[in-house]
C-alpha cells in the first residue's frame, strides 16, 4: 500500500483539489468544453497517509462534486490486516469532511454502476466504499497480505481458476469478453464527436486551445521587461518577497491561466494580487486559493492542476516548510510538470522566529532534486527574470526562494537579456581586472558587493558573480562557466545556508561563508554577525586565499 | 498557525502516539512510577496539517486514553477566518478516530476543569473543543487575524484594559493573583514527595533509572563485537537490510528500552524481531509498533518517545519515503534526540519498483540536515558498527540506509575497533603503495573493490576507502582525513545517488560515478549498467585521472 499510495495520493489530491477547479475555472458551469468527472481508486494506505486529510478536507470545503473516489476497502495492507494499525470509521470521517459516502459490494458491477450514478447527482465530493476481497477467488490467499505484492504461484492460480470457473488458456481473451471490451472502447465515439463540434464552434476556443497547449501570451516578455526597466530606474529597496508580489501584480492580468494561493501565509508570501478574486465553492472562476495550513496537499493539488493542463499553478509558504511538501515536489520534477512555488523567509534573515523557521539545509536539499530549478534572486530585476524563466519552463518545476528582509536594487542598468536564465553571471567586473571571485545568491549578493567595495579600497579588485540558480548554471557549457568563474582565480562563495551544492565550484581550496548549524532567534542583522556572514569575513577570506 | 503547527504537531504526535506508550511500556497499568496524563494545546492549523490525521488516527486505534487535547477552537488563522479554507466537522472527525469529544466555552475555567476531569475517566484519547475568541477583550481586534502575530498597539491595549476591567500597571502582578499562582506552584509538593517514596522503594527502580538516564547496558559492546566476529568468520552474502535484522535480533534482548516499528513495511525493512511482541491496545508492553502507512506520524511519534525519555525508538520505511517524514526528522536533529530510522531499498538497486521508489537525491538531502548521521554500511560488519554508533549518540538522530540487494562481506578480518565511528576509513591498501583513491559507500564499496582488482591486474594499485558516514568523517581532524584520502592522489567516488555531498572531497578535478537523474524500472544489475555505475567505469575514471 505504501507504494501504491505514492501514486494514489497524488491522484487523490489532483482530483480532490484541482481537477475540478481546473475545469470550473476554465469553463464555468454552463460551458461544456470541460465537463468530465474525475475518478480515483484509493487504497487503505491512501486513506492513512496525512495528505489524504489535507486533500479531502479541502475538497469537501470547496464542494468538488465532480470528484468520485472508489475506495478499495479490502482491509489488507502489507503487514497484514489493517486492524493491526487502523480502526477509523471511514464513513464518519468523510461525512466530517462534507463528503457524500456510499457503501457497496465492490464485486457487484451493478452496485458499482448505481453508486457512480448516485455520486454524480450530489453537490459534494463522493467516496464509495467498495467492500472487496483482495485476491478474490484465490482459495488460500484470498483476504491475506500474501497477494499484495507477490505472485500467486502455480497451485494457487489453479485453485483460483477452479473457484472462478475460468478454463481459458493464459493470455487467451474469450471472444465474448473481447467483444464487450471493444464496445467499451468505441462507446465514447459519439461523445467525442459532439465535443469536437462544441469545441469547434465555441466562443472561447482560441483561449481554451492556447491554455491547453501550455503556451504563454506574447505580452509576457514585454511585461517582464517593463518591470525590470522600472526597477533599474527607480532602484527600490525591497524584500524579494515584495518584489515577487510586484511581478505577480504585473503578470496576473497577462497570463490568464495562472492560479495562485498560499498555505495560510498570504500576507507574508505576497502571493495575492488584485486580479481574479478568491476561488471558493461560490466562485470557481476565482484565481486565488486559500489552501489553509496544508502545505503538502497544496503541492499535490498543484501537480493535479498542471497535469490537467490549461493551468499554471503557483503557491506560497515559508522555505522551511518545503520539507512538508517535498514528496509532491519530487513528483512534479519526476513528472516534468510546471508548478511554481514561492518560498519566502528564505534564511536566518527572517529573524526572530528562530531555528524552526530558518531554513539552512533546504536550499541544498531542493537543489538535490533532479529537474527542479531553485531560484534565489537578489533584487526585483532578478526576481522578475526568475519568474520569466519559471513560466517558460513547461517541463520543470521551480522554487522561488525569497527574503523577508529588504534588499537594495543591484541591477541598476537595464538590459533586455534575461541574465538569470544562465543561472549565474558576472554582476561586477573591476576595470583593473579581477584577482579573485566572490559568488553569492539572493540576499548575500549585497554582502558580496560590500566586500568588493572594501577590497577595492585596499586596491584588491574582485569579480562579483550573482548565482540566482545553480541548477541552471550547472547546465551551461564549460566555456560559459569558465568565463563567469575564471579558471585560476581563488573563489569565495557566500550564502546564508550550508555549503553543500557550492563545493563543486569551491573544491577543497575555496572558502565558503555561510551556515554549518541550525540558526538562532534574534534580529536578522545580529544573526548575520553572529554566524559570521559578513562583508568583513568575505574580505578576510579573499585575502587569505591571495596570500 | 503555520508556525505554531510546527511545534504543536510534534506535541500532538508525541502525545498521541508515544507518550502513553512510553509510560505504559515502561511501567504497566499497576505501576505508578509513570502515570501522568499528557496535555496538548492544539490550534486550527494543527488540525488542518496532514500529520494530525496520522497521529490522531493511530492514537484512537491504540486507545491512548491518557492523552487530552485542548483544541483552541477560535476559528481564526493567519489569512483570516478559518471559513476561508476549512469546514470540517471536528467532532465527527474525532469520533471517526474513536476519540472522546467534548465541547465547552474555552473562557470558562470551571468548564475546562470539569471537561478535563471527565476526559480522565474515558478509555479513549480525548479532545476538548474549547470555543474561544482570539484577542479576547480587545474591542476592535477580537476575533480577527490581526491579533495572531502582531502586537495590539497602544489604543487597542487601552480598550482591552477597559473591557477586562484591568487597572494594574504593565508587569505588575496583583498580590491576590500572585498568591494563587504560588499556590499552584507548590501544589505538586505532596505528589512529588509521594512519588519519591514510591520510586525509592520500587522493585524496578534501577531499571527505570537506567532507562531514564539514557545509558546503554554494558553488554551492548560485547553483543556488537560478537555479531561482527561471526560475520567476519562466516562471510555471508547478505542485503544490509537483512544484516540490520540480524543486528536487531542480537541487541533487542540486550537493550530493553529499544522500541521498534515500521510504516507497513515490516517484512521489507527487517525491523521486527522475536523479542517483545506487538504493542497494541491490549498489550502496551509490546516492543514493536505497526505504525500503518503513516511515515510522518511515525517519525513524530519517535520524537515524542525520545523526548519522554527512557525509550530509544527505531523505525522502518523505504529511503525514498524519507521525504514524507522530513519535518519530524529535522526536529529530531534540532532537538538533539536519539531516534534511529532504518531506511531500506536505498538506491536504484531496489530494481523494478522504478523511479518513484528509487532514492537518488535523498542521501544528499539527509546529509544536508545538521546534527543528523546518515549511515550507509557496506556489509554486516559495518551495519553492526553503524547500529552501535547510532545507539551511542544520545544527542543525534541516525539514518541507516540499507540495501534490498545482497552484498558480500568485505570486512573479513575481525577487529574490535568500530571503524564506522570515524565515518570513513581505508578498507584496502595496496602493498605496492596506492596511486589513486576510490571512495564509495554501501553497495558501491563492492564495485570499488572490483575496480581495484581490475586495476591491480593492470599493475595500477589503488586504495579503497569505505565511507559509511560522511557526516562523521567531516567531523574528523584534518590529519585523519588526510591519512585516509591522501593529499595528492587523484580521487574517484562511487555512490548510486547524486554527487552532492561528495564534491567537497572531489573538487573540480575528481570524478564522481553515480546518478544525475531520476532512476528507471528494471532488474538492478541492468540498472547499474544502464546508469554506468560499474567497476569498469571506475577503472576508466582512475586511468583518465592518472594520464
Q: Which two chains share the most extensive interface?
A: A-B, 93 and 93 residues
Main sheet properties of chain A: 6 strands, parallel
Number of beta strands of chain A: 19
Structural class of chain A: alpha/beta
Assembly state here? homodimer
Taking Cα atoms only, what radius of gyration of chain A do you get, to the nearest Å? 27 Å
Helix content of chain A: 40-55%
Nutshell version of this structure?
The structure is a homodimer of 547-residue chains. With 547 residues, chain A is of the alpha/beta class. The first copy, chain A, is 43% helix and 15% strand.
Q: Main attributes?
A:
19 strands, elongated, 22 helices, homodimer, 43% helix, alpha/beta
What does this structure look like?
Two copies of one chain form a homodimer. By secondary structure, the first copy, chain A, is an alpha/beta fold. The first copy, chain A, is 43% helix and 15% strand. Chain A has 22 helices and 19 strands. In chain A, the strands form five sheets. In chain A, strands 9-8-10-11-13-12 form a six-stranded parallel beta sheet, with helices on both faces. In chain A, helix 1 (2-27) packs parallel to helix 3 (50-61) and helix 3 (50-61) packs across helix 13. The longest helix of chain A has 26 residues, at 2-27. The model of chain A is unreliable at 1-21 (pLDDT under 50). At the A-B interface, helix 1, helix 2, helix 3, helix 4 and helix 12 of A face helix 1, helix 2, helix 3, helix 4 and helix 12 of B.
Amino acid at each position: 500500500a505504501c507504494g501504491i499510495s505514492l501514486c494514489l495520493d497524488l491522484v487523490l489530491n489532483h482530483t480532490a483539489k484541482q481537477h475540478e477547479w481546473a475545469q470550473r475555472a476554465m469553463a464555468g458551469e454552463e460551458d461544456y468544453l470541460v465537463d468530465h468527472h474525475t475518478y480515483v481508486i484509493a487504497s487503505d494506505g491512501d486513506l492513512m497517509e496525512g495528505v489524504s486529510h489535507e486533500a479531502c478536507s479541502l475538497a469537501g470545503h470547496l464542494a468538488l462534486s465532480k470528484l468520485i473516489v472508489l475506495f478499495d476497502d479490502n482491509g489488507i495492507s502489507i503487514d497484514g490486516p489493517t486492524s493491526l494499525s487502523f480502526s477509523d470509521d471511514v464513513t464518519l470521517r468523510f461525512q466530517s469532511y462534507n463528503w457524500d459516502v456510499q457503501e457497496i459490494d465492490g464485486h457487484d458491477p451493478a452496485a458499482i454502476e448505481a453508486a457512480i450514478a448516485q455520486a454524480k447527482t450530489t453537490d459534494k465530493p463522493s467516496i464509495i466504499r467498495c467492500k472487496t476481497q483482495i485476491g478474490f477467488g484465490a482459495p488460500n490467499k484470498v483476504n491475506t497480505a500474501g497477494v499484495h505484492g507477490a505472485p500467486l504461484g502455480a497451485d494457487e492460480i489453479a485453485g483460483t481458476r477452479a473457484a472462478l470457473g475460468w478454463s481459458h488458456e493464459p493470455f487467451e481473451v474469450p471472444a465474448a469478453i473481447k467483444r464487450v471490451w471493444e464496445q467499451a472502447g468505441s462507446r465514447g465515439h459519439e461523445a467525442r464527436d459532439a465535443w469536437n463540434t462544441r469545441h469547434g464552434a465555441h466562443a472561447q476556443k482560441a483561449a481554451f486551445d492556447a491554455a491547453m497547449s501550455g503556451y504563454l501570451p506574447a505580452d509576457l516578455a514585454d511585461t517582464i521587461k517593463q518591470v525590470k526597466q522600472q526597477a533599474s530606474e527607480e532602484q527600490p529597496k525591497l524584500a524579494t518577497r515584495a518584489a515577487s508580489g510586484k511581478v505577480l501584480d504585473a503578470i496576473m492580468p497577462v497570463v490568464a491561466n495562472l492560479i495562485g494561493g498560499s498555505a495560510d501565509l498570504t500576507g507574508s508570501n505576497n502571493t495575492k494580487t488584485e486580479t481574479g478574486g478568491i476561488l471558493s465553492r461560490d466562485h470557481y472562476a476565482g484565481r486565488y486559493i486559500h489552501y489553509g495550513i496544508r502545505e503538502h496537499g497544496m503541492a499535490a493539488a498543484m501537480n493535479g492542476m498542471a497535469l490537467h493542463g490549461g493551468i499554471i499553478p503557483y503557491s506560497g509558504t515559508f522555505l522551511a516548510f518545503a520539507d512538508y511538501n517535498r514528496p509532491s515536489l519530487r513528483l512534479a520534477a519526476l513528472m516534468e510538470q510546471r508548478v511554481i512555488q514561492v518560498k519566502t523567509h528564505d534564511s536566518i534573515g527572517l529573524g526572530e522566529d528562530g531555528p524552526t523557521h530558518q531554513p539552512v539545509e533546504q536550499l541544498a536539499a531542493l537543489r538535490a532534486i533532479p529537474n527542479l530549478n531553485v531560484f534565489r534572486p537578489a533584487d526585483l530585476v532578478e526576481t522578475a527574470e526568475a519568474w520569466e524563466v519559471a513560466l517558460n519552463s513547461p517541463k520543470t518545476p521551480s522554487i522561488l526562494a525569497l527574503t523577508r528582509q529588504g534588499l537594495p536594487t543591484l541591477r541598476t542598468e537595464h538590459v533586455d537579456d534575461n541574465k538569470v536564465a544562465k543561472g549565474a553571471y558576472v554582476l561586477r567586473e573591476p576595470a583593473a581586472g579581477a584577482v579573485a571571485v566572490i559568488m553569492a545568491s539572493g540576499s548575500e549578493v549585497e554582502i558580496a558587493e560590500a566586500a568588493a567595495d572594501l577590497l577595492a579600497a585596499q586596491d584588491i579588485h574582485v569579480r562579483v558573480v550573482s548565482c540566482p540558480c545553480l541548477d541552471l548554471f550547472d547546465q551551461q557549457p564549460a566555456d560559459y562557466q569558465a568565463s563567469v568563474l575564471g579558471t585560476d582565480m581563488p573563489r569565495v562563495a557566500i550564502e546564508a545556508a550550508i555549503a553543500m551544492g557550492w563545493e563543486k565550484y569551491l573544491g577543497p581550496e575555496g572558502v565558503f561563508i555561510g551556515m554549518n548549524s541550525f540558526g538562532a532567534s534574534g534580529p536578522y542583522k545580529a544573526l548575520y554577525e553572529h554566524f559570521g556572514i559578513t562583508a568583513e569575513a568575505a574580505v578576510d577570506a579573499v585575502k587569505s586565499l591571495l596570500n
